Amino acid sequence: MRRNNFLHNIKKSSRDQMLFGVCGGLGEHTPIPSWVWRVIFLISLFCGGIGIIIYIILAIFMPVN
What is the pTM of this model? Predict the structure, then answer.
């Protein structure tokens, strides 16, 4: 039996995007709004730069909505 895994449904947003639509897509498919995802990535950018690495990986591998 296949479980409904939300990670398979996450896609980049074509409506709510500033750069690549990653945060907009995360905001559409999770209970966390897109502006919170943007703040999380911004804060993690200043904490060692891991935020930009994760954002780039998601921008490359997330499919477009």
Answer: 0.78
